[in-house]
Amino acid sequence: MSATDQVQLSNFGSIFSLDGKVAVVTGGSRGLGLHAASGLLQAGCSKVYITSRKKQACDEAVAALNALPNKRPGAQAISVPADSSNMTELDRLVAEIGKTTDHVDLLFANAGATWGEKFDTHPEKMFSKVMDLNVKSIFYTIQKLTPLLTAKATLEDPSRVIITASVAGIGIGSIGENATPSYSISKAAAIHLAKNLAVELGPRHILINAIAPGFYPSKMASGLIELKGGMKELEEYSPNRRLGRPEDIAGLVVFLSSRAASHLNGAVIATDGGAVLKGRL
């Protein structure tokens, strides 16, 4: 074995470590965002900024995260409530983050919304709201955080952006009485946004990838889960016979944020147990 091989093997022990990294999680007060934030802190992040529209929800999430027993010494979650669909609020969010850090290593762009209503009566107001939050706000959150994301990024240690899309943006989402056209379209756009920005920002040492979750039991998904027959039916439909769990999303986000994913850029990873391959979501 060569000396180079020995050096490479000796480094694999820290391949998933996020020791000392600074992360921002939008939509981080509940659901997938909160699961991911928990994973990021437990993987070694020193600061995880939690933002969502409601201050109380952010504060409660941060209190729970800061009570985790296995964080690195001094690690903390920080509440920065903001409406990321509002450009003025986004500017304030970035300014607030900049008061306590000079850089950001990881952005989990997870804020999102949905609306279910049949095609014939789907309201323009809600279509616009979903598109604004699921696409426009992601673009501008990344744009406005780019100076902090590039501040310490290098070729060997690039910053990461992970965009939450959906398997509804890969296949076809819900149709009929509770159709979600704005959601499905917005998530397809989020996937294409990740691909475009991967090429745009890769040379600046920012890697952009998207995740496409299937059904994860959560406040936002619970209604649609029931409309599709409930958890048991959806579990039976999935090739792996279950729905998503907190550790599934946390592990994927930690992986994409770590050195193990340093050569992934513009990737789209479905996390749905293979259900999208069967052609119905």
Automatic annotation (TrEMBL):
It holds the Pfam family adh_short_C2. Keywords: NADP, Oxidoreductase. GO terms for molecular function: oxidoreductase activity. The lineage of its organism: Eukaryota, Fungi, Dikarya, Ascomycota, Pezizomycotina. PROSITE patterns: ADH_SHORT. This is Rhamnolipids biosynthesis 3-oxoacyl-[acyl-carrier-protein] reductase. Belongs to the short-chain dehydrogenases/reductases (SDR) family. SUPFAM superfamilies: NAD(P)-binding Rossmann-fold domains.
